[in-house]
Design goal:
Elements (H helix, E strand, L loop, with lengths): L5 H12 L23 E3 L2 E3 L24 E7 L9 H15 L2 E7 L5 H11 L5 E3 L8 H6 L7 H7 L1 H7 L7 E2 L2 E2 L2 E2 L7 E7 H6 L3 H5 L4 H13 L7 E3 L14 E2 L9 E2 L10 E2 L10 E2 L4 H15 L14 H6 L3 E8 L3 H9 L3 E8 L4 H4 L3 E3 L7 H13 L1 H9 L6 E4 L2 E4 L33 H10 L17 H19 L7 H11 L2 H18 L1
Parallel strand pairs: 3-4, 3-5, 10-15
Antiparallel strand pairs: 1-2, 5-17, 6-7, 8-17, 9-15, 9-16, 11-12, 13-14, 18-19
């Protein structure tokens, strides 16, 4: 992925996983959430919960007394708000510290860095040794878990979790293996909806106007989707819309990570496990029928998606600037430029996409992916090597994962100031929305998403339904495998440059004939075989220990 565009990809993911951040500033005190639906907690592989309507008691898994002095620790917590930085942070920070100073003797300083600056600012903080005690990683680029872990930029927190993070370890179960290397835990994945499906997202108003809503909702093939695209293009009312927009700012359309969608019937679509690689280089059958790793871009399945996109582009269905625009699909839909796009998403995607696009969206599932290491490592919390207070950081991290008060403060803000609760569902304050609120951040980022109140548009039992879906989901045979890529950094850098050069035009269908072959040749000459071989060697060793 191109370094200058990589963070824009996150906006697409975020709008799938939750609502974007807002907005302006307010002050207020934290309120208890007596109307919250009872979130379920996990202990290993078992699920526990309270009766509906009860608010579960916070489980901060307080550590035993130790020999430390009584001086209050102060930690710096750094993450990005997935949009503009809200100006109501101070009130949220004050409410959090009212809890943490009394209960874990820790003062928390929140620093949000805007999307476009996150990668650069984290790099500067790390290189200068600036104090960062807790930080959120992102799915791509230099701030991804894979990249930072391979650069040895995280502390081993295994012992600290044993002492201060028992609640995290009990909750995560085997999911913690995704961030464990040689028995050492370097980060904790956010505990969120990890069941990802691949969707076609379409404007509902266009479908209704053309009498195609029912057809869209019930379609089971790309042939039917193409018929809808043709009808939109031929329409006097909507013909100006691009049929398919790029999902991100790197021209991505159909070849979503983890899915092989170059088929006709959705039921024939399949998936692959990336083994934690977020560059789409690595592919293996998650069913485990064959433990051989393939170079994804060279597979017939990937080529089929490129060919399908090329066909759609030639028919005039693809946004003409898909390979070069800095706008993501949600922005293009919101600006009345595009009709539809492809995206990865979780349960509740209709609510998040409608909010992101500013209009009702119809979402049709193509295929559901199994839970894999890559699912877990998209967003993780880690203690950087520049941390001054790693013990306090892990204590607070444990509260993020086990205390509903902390989760809702970080996600929605201060109750009755930034949001209100009606019948177990959180809403904006009267007269406010995503554009004029003082605080609103995506709910999946802060430890345990299942502790967050469901948001307007979701049912009161949404978290329980989502948790049940995750508990019943397929898991890849290779869930928990994590490759140490420190020895192949040069090859990964070279490969990234090649993907940046060819990926946008190929994955939007704009690339001329012959570019795919040039792409594969350059990948091979840049060390793709070396990367695959290193993954294979480490996977074989991991399998031998299972």
């Amino acid at each position: 992925m191109g370094r200058n565009k990589v963070l824009a990809i996150i906006l697409t993911l975020v709008m799938t996983l939750g609502l974007l951040a807002g907005c302006g500033s307010s002050e207020g005190q934290m309120q208890t959430q007596s109307n919250a639906p009872a979130p379920k907690q996990t202990t290993g592989d078992k699920t526990q919960g309270t009766d509906a309507g009860e608010t579960p008691a916070p489980d901060t898994a307080a550590p035993e007394e130790d020999d430390e002095d009584d001086t209050m620790a102060e930690i710096n917590m750094v993450y990005m708000p997935m949009g503009s930085v809200p100006t109501g942070i101070d009130a949220v920070e004050d409410a959090i510290n009212e809890i943490t100073e009394a209960e874990i003797n820790t003062h928390v300083n929140i620093e949000m860095i805007e999307t476009g600056s996150y990668e650069q600012q984290i790099g500067l903080k790390m290189s200068s040794g600036e104090k960062m005690d807790l930080m959120l990683t992102l799915p791509f680029g230099s701030t991804s878990y894979n990249n930072m872990a391979s650069q040895k930029q995280f502390k081993d927190i295994s012992g600290l979790l044993d002492k201060y993070g028992k609640g995290i370890l009990e909750m995560m179960g085997n999911l913690i293996d995704a961030t464990t290397v040689d028995g050492k835990i370097y980060a904790v994945p956010t505990y969120r909806t990890l069941v990802t499906s691949e969707y076609i997202v379409m404007r509902t108003d266009v479908l209704e106007d053309l009498g195609l809503l029912e057809k869209a909702q019930n379609m089971t093939s790309f042939t039917e989707y193409e018929e809808i695209l043709a009808a939109v293009k031929a329409s006097d009312e909507w013909g100006y819309l691009a049929g398919i927009a790029n999902s991100d700012s790197d021209g991505l359309c159909l070849p979503l990570a983890g899915g092989y969608l170059g088929v006709d019937k959705f039921s024939d679509a399949y998936y692959y496990d990336q083994l934690g690689d977020l560059n789409k280089i690595i592919a293996i059958d998650p069913e485990g029928t064959d433990d051989t790793i393939k170079m994804n871009f060279a597979t017939d399945d990937y080529k089929a998606m490129i060919d399908k996109m090329r066909g759609w582009y030639e028919k005039g269905y693809v946004y003409k600037d898909a390979a070069t625009t800095d706008d993501t699909a949600e922005i293009l839909v919101k600006n009345n430029v595009a009709f539809s796009y492809f995206v990865e998403g979780e349960i509740g995607i209709e609510t998040s996409k409608t909010a992101a696009c500013g209009t009702d969206m119809t979402c049709v599932k193509i295929v559901t992916l199994p839970i894999s290491t890559s699912s877990c490592t998209k967003f993780v919390w880690a203690v950087p090597t520049t941390a001054d207070e790693p013990e306090a950081a892990v204590k607070f991290m444990n509260m993020m994962y086990t205390d509903a008060r902390i989760e809702n403060l970080l996600a929605w803000g201060v109750e009755n100031v930034n949001y209100q609760v009606k019948d177990g569902i959180a809403y904006f304050m009267d007269g406010e929305d995503i554009n004029n609120c003082s605080y609103h951040v995506a709910d999946f980022m802060f430890g345990n998403q299942f502790l967050a109140l469901p948001w307007d548009g979701q049912p009161a039992d949404f978290r329980q339904v989502a948790k049940a879906e995750m508990d019943g989901a397929k898991e890849s045979k290779y869930l928990g495998f994590s490759c140490d890529t420190s020895g192949i950094q040069n090859e990964l850098t070279s490969i990234s440059n090649v993907i940046s050069e060819y990926g946008p035009s190929l994955e939007s269908g704009i690339a001329p004939a012959g570019d795919y072959e040039k792409f594969i040749d350059k990948l091979n000459s840049s060390g793709a075989d070396t990367i695959v071989a290193e993954y294979q060697k480490q996977l074989d060793a991991w399998l031998a220990k299972q």
